[in-house]
Automatic annotation (TrEMBL), chain A:
InterPro entries for the chain: DctM, TRAP_DctM
Protein name per the record: TRAP transporter, DctM subunit
UniProt organism field: Halopenitus malekzadehii
A Pfam family that the UniProt record links to this protein: DctM
Sorted UniProt keywords: Cell inner membrane, Cell membrane, Membrane, Transmembrane, Transmembrane helix
Annotated ranges, domain TRAP C4-dicarboxylate transport system permease DctM subunit: 11-420
Principal localisation: membrane
Localization terms from the record: Cell inner membrane
GO molecular function, one term: transmembrane transporter activity
Highest rank taxon of the organism: Archaea
TrEMBL record, chain C:
Occurrences of domain Tripartite ATP-independent periplasmic transporters DctQ component (ranges): 31-158
Protein name (Swiss-Prot/TrEMBL): TRAP-type C4-dicarboxylate transport system, small permease component
Pfam families, per database record: DctQ
GO cellular component: plasma membrane
Gene Ontology terms: biological process: C4-dicarboxylate transport
Protein keywords: Cell inner membrane, Cell membrane, Membrane, Transmembrane, Transmembrane helix, Transport
Transmembrane segments: 15-35, 55-73, 94-118, 138-157
Taxonomic superkingdom: Archaea
Amino acid sequence: MELAIIGLLFLGTLLVLYGLGVPVAVAMGVTVITVMASPYGPSFNYTLISNQLLFGLNSFTLLAIPFYLLLGRLMNRSGFTEDIFEFANSVVGSVRGGIGYVNVLASLIFSGMSGLALADAAGLGRVEYSVMREYDYDKDVALGITGGSAIIGPIIPPSVPIIIYGVLAGESINALFLAGIIPGFLLAVTLLLSVAIVTRIRGYGATGTFDPRRVLETFGTAAIALVIPVLIIGGILSGLFTATEAGAITVVYITISGMVFGDLTISKIVAETRDAAVETFSLTFIIAIAAAYGLVALELRLPMMLVDAITGVTTDPTYMLLLLVALFLVVGTFMETVAAITVLVPVLVPVIDIAGIDPIHFGIVMVLTLMIGLLTPPLGIILFVLEQVTDASLEEVMRAIVPYYVPLLIVLLIIVFVPETTTYIPYEFL
Amino acid sequence: TGNGGNGSGNGGNGGNGGSDGTESGSQDGSSGGSNEELDITLASTYEEGHINVQAAKMFRDRIEDESDGAITVEVASGGSYGSEAEITDLASQNVVGMHSGAGVPFSMYAPEYYIIDMPFVMEDADHLFEVVESEKFAPAYDLLIEEGNQRQLGGRFYRGQRYFTANESVSHPDDVQGMQFRSPPLEPWVQIWSEIGVEPTSVALDELFSALQQGVVDAAEGDIEQIHSFNYPEVQDYLSATRHAPFSGAMYMNESLYQSLSESHQTLVNEVAAEVAEEANEMGMQREQELIDDLVDQGMTLVEDVDRQAFRDRARPAVNALFEDRWAGTWEEWRNV
Amino acid sequence: MEIDQSLGIKRQTTFDTIVLVGTVGMFATLIVLASSQVLVRNLNLPISLPWTEPTSRYLLIVATYFGAAVASRNDEHVRMSYLLEKLERRAPRVTRWVDVINTTVVVAFVGFIAYGTLLSMSANWNSDIGGIGFLTSGYVYLGIALGLGSMLVYELLGLRTAVDRIRTANPDQEG
Ligand code: NA
Ligand code: NA
């Protein structure tokens, strides 16, 4: 009974405030105050939240976030994003359904530079969608492939959600980054298969002829951008630098080459820095308040109660993971990714520890599941972005995405049942 | 059994309705008398198995036993409440009732007395304990109460010396000149080590392993527990017995909570904490040698023959300057306590 | 094809300029500090910058709350606006009231944590935070308090706008 009331206070207050459109951070904070003020909560404390405003953010690893947010923006602004698209198009654009494959491959390449799915959907997504429409692809196909492939971004390193998971779970960011490589490629492969199937059903033709000179030409312009994933993943793999350092170096690299070879000007750099600052700090603001939310949950021993509840159902790691995936799918549909990670990770780390689930494996499963949540109504942010950057309505976007849940969920299940898909590379190479 | 323990803990919490809990009991001033019931959160940033956590658990078992269940303790280890600095702050703000850690409360609330964890300041473990038990150090404990709203319970216990690690044998300050060295990000540490001649570099602790692996830094240092748990043997060949800072731990209690205890319970927690500290102290002494042996088994070469006097002499100008600008007393005074 | 990813950050008053320039300045400093640390280390330059690590950590903390103020000014906080937008189409008058309630909640919350921050600031004015000599946690809390103060100003202005919208709304239009 008491557990039910506490649970209701914790989630109910939060959800009502979400629904009203109160900012995520404030909704969490007000929930903390409500719980503290209730007779069931810990004693009322004015400084509990302010303490977390400082200590919740006192981590050097969080500094990777500004780098990768700025990097995605500079890529889009300097024209390199389109260069990547042109290159992918020159390579596979000539086969049947070619532009669909281009859509997936361009996202795969871009994901090696961007830390957020939104950077893909908002930047590359706009280009991909309009080119597909120009070649007379159906609206739903163009929307579906663009949206589905946008979530490859945060699985392939670098990734902002993975950084946040690593910070909160106390796991190595380098290992987590490497763990995402195979799942990212699995996503790309299943989406390419989906394109093949759709091409067959709708009977799409080729969109150009293959010209080796054109491939070389576009490779020449795209090479500057293509270096970046090699720099980031190679640098981490070879132990040359850490994930945070890789972010710093690529920002310096793209700024210089963008000014020399691209369309980057000082005023554009200033504008992108300004916008990246606002984006960064709205995320870290949530992280700080979510730390207070986690602290109050801890004071009420919610994590321990949850451990009891879950271990009461099953102690088998795989089934427990499936149970948690179901939880993330539900949470991911109404909670913003960063907010979900910051609230759940501190609570769940003791659970997976007891169950013997590998924390690296768990992190990738969690991020992928929450990414699928980004495509799910009502709060699936990618849906809103696609509505914004295309001529489609929100209803059209939502309907178009539905068939692409199938390949995404298949990949999710493969990763849940085969932990080696995530753990092989980091354990073999680090 | 762990689950059962959690279950009963929750029940206890529910029975109290939270209003007799750790912190509100003190704020409301509602508790007191001999039939008080208390549920204390005892936090530690260290992992299960660490000497600070072992001490915490010993304290829990004994206090629950000897108070006949009137006082229950929940040990929250592994940093669920955050870093040591964060936990110390939470203790000052009545969020956690007790914590078990190193010297961070002194660094925050009595910085002029935070000489205890500093490199090349204490002669050895014996000297450290003479210092912390001396009349001259007593104001530090008062500052903890006045500035940090928390008190040390029982004595301090030995956690082991700090050692220097590198890929070459280090036995004299001349051996470390110009080395890229990972120092804890504390200003006095950086000043003292710079004086000795290394190049202190800032690397976050969780990135230290890969930094050593790729040669971003050549050398590091740490207490044996840290060197052991961060797998230094995989990336460093030599363990030099510089023994530059004897580390100690202690348990701390929120002052408002302490004042809300009945007199008999105050006596009880003090007695139990003192007993536990003494035992932890012996465990610490023993454990240090065991962990060194294990590191040697893992392939590290122990350099026992270190000219520690040469290191101390080299450090001296920086240490003296720190005593002049920052710390209470002089080096001479503390050496003669 | 021009990619439009601009947030359209507003800068109309001197106060806007101070908060925005402060935020972006801190952000840029963060980037420069962390990059230079990496470069110094990887290029094996004969200097060491051990103070950059704590400095960039504390800068990120303080900048967050100035950034939150800029987000308040430009309505860039992460929030679920979907239900509200649906409501907007059906019952604009109700939406205006919900707006007022929301902003009041935000104002009350920011006021609460700003007050808590002031308490933490005075309790920790002399508490050494480690890393940088003169810096105490009290100073960091002061930085946080200033950021939250700016956020409070913007939220109060937002509340006034929201209330004005109710007062000036023409009831005839909605029947
Ligand atoms: Na795509
Ligand atoms: Na990515």
